[in-house]
């Protein structure tokens, strides 16, 4: 699937050595395109997402390609006890050209990010999540009084995102359908100046922490800069960053000229985990949920901008 999914653990664990591990969260019976994945945690990378704490992300490009070298080493040191990701293959996917670098391959298998060719039962990703009762976060202001798992979605080049998101109630089977929308600009507009086009082409804007420029990555880095500048402290999700990135405090985080956005819909029904406890498939003190992720349609919608009209040009036309 061409989407990066962050699976948020129920509790807030600010000490990464005390946080839940991937093997504790994910049940062994995980299926991708109807094939059981052995050692599922080899496919997950740990990150920290704001107040939600430790989470695990799947189908993100390798963080060795997302972070610049110095910050990747700091990330590795910070998550030293939580890293189970073993994929060393380089990803040649990017926002602007997609999978075009793989055109010489007759069949796209074992690529990063992974992709599927259909929308049926046999083209899904199925995850079984579990956690003990004591680990669940309950927060009425966030609408999760009874405790929930949280899943967020972003494109594979983005470090993290809190929207779109889905809260998953324990003891349920939830089907999540994903609709991607791809936006690009006409090739003729790429030659226009940045001031006119108001979006960044690939490799046009460099960041200090991230190799991959996206508006979200830029804003994330800018928040780190401003936080250090204003209070001399770090957000918990930036704990791997121990110095001020060399970046302007005036962020100017424009969108990328090519982008992917996602619309997600979900349906749930009750799923009795007591039966699985009775046959020792899961622990007696655990609560869990089964999640099925699949594309909603056998195609995606692509938009191409053929003209550029910003506020300044609109005012000029009205004069």
CATH superfamily: Acid-sensing ion channels like domains
Give the overall shape.
Answer: globular
Kindly state the mean pLDDT as a whole number? 77
Oligomer: single chain
**Total strand segments:** 12
Low-confidence stretches: 7-17
Q: How far is it from the N-terminal to the C-terminal residue, by CA? A: 48 Å
State the CATH architecture.
Sandwich
Total domains: 1
Describe the overall structure:
This protein is an alpha+beta fold. The protein has a single domain (4-311), classed as Acid-sensing ion channels like fold, CATH 2.60.470.10. The chain contains seven helices and twelve strands. Strands 2, 3, 6, 9, 10, 11 and 12 form a seven-stranded mixed sheet that branches. The protein has a five-stranded antiparallel sheet with strand order 4-5-1-7-8, with no helix packed on it. A hairpin with a 2-residue loop joins strand 2 (31-32) and strand 3 (35-36). The longest helix has 17 residues, at 215-231. It is globular and about 65 Å long. The model is unreliable at 7-17 (pLDDT under 50).
């Amino acid at each position: 699937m061409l989407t990066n999914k962050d699976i948020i653990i129920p509790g807030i664990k600010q000490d990464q050595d005390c946080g839940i591990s991937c093997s504790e969260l994910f049940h062994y019976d995980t299926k991708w395109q109807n094939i059981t994945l052995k050692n599922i945690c080899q496919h997950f990378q740990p990150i920290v997402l704001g107040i939600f704490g430790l989470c695990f992300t799947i189908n993100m490009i390798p963080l060795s390609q997302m972070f610049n070298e110095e910050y990747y080493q700091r990330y590795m040191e910070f998550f030293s006890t939580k890293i189970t990701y073993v994929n060393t293959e380089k990803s040649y996917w990017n926002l602007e050209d997609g999978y075009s670098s793989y055109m010489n391959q007759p069949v796209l298998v074992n690529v990063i990010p992974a992709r599927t060719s259909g929308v049926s039962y046999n083209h899904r990703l199925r995850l079984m999540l579990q956690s003990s009762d004591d680990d669940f976060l309950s927060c009425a202001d966030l609408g999760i009084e009874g405790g929930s798992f949280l899943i967020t979605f972003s494109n594979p080049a983005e470090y993290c995102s809190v929207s779109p998101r889905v809260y998953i109630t324990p003891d349920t089977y939830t089907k999540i359908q994903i609709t991607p929308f791809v936006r690009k600009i006409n090739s003729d507009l790429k030659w226009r100046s940045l001031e006119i086009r108001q979006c960044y082409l690939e490799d046009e804007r460099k960041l200090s922490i991230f190799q991959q420029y996206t508006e979200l990555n830029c804003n994330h880095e800018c928040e780190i800069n401003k936080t250090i500048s204003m209070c001399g402290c770090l957000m918990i999700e930036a704990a791997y960053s121990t110095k001020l990135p060399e970046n302007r405090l005036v962020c100017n985080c424009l969108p990328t000229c090519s982008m992917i956005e996602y619309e997600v819909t979900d349906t749930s029904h009750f799923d009795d985990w007591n039966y699985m406890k009775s046959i020792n498939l899961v622990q007696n003190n655990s609560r869990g949920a089964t999640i099925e992720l699949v594309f909603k349609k056998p195609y995606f919608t692509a938009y191409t901008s053929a003209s550029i009209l910003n506020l300044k040009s609109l005012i000029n036309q009205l004069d």
